[in-house]
Amino acid sequence: MAMKVSTTATFALLQIGTAAVSAFTSPSINSVIRSPSIHLRSSPSATASTITDADEEEWDVVVVGSGVGGLSAAAMCARYGLKTICVEAHDAPGGVAHSFVRRASSSPNRPFVFDSGPSLLSGMSSKGTNPLRQVLDAVGTADDIDWVTYDGWMVHDTAFPMDDSRSSFRLTTGSDGTWEDAIEAKAGVDSRREFTKFKKKMMSSGGLSESSALLPPMALRGDFGALFTMGSYVFKFLTIGLQGTLLTGPFTECMNLYGLNDRFNRQWFDYLAFALSGLDAAHTQAAPVAYTMIDLHKDGAVLDYPKGGMDSMIQALVNGLEMKRDNVESGELRLKSRVERFVLNEVKNKATCTGVVLENGTVLKARRGVICNAPLWNMAKLLEDSITNPLDLSVAAAVNDVRSQANEMEMTGSFMHLHLGIPNDGLPAHLDC
Question: Which residues contact 114 (CB under 8 A, 6 or more apart)?
Answer without folding.
Answer: 99, 100, 101, 102, 309, 419, 421
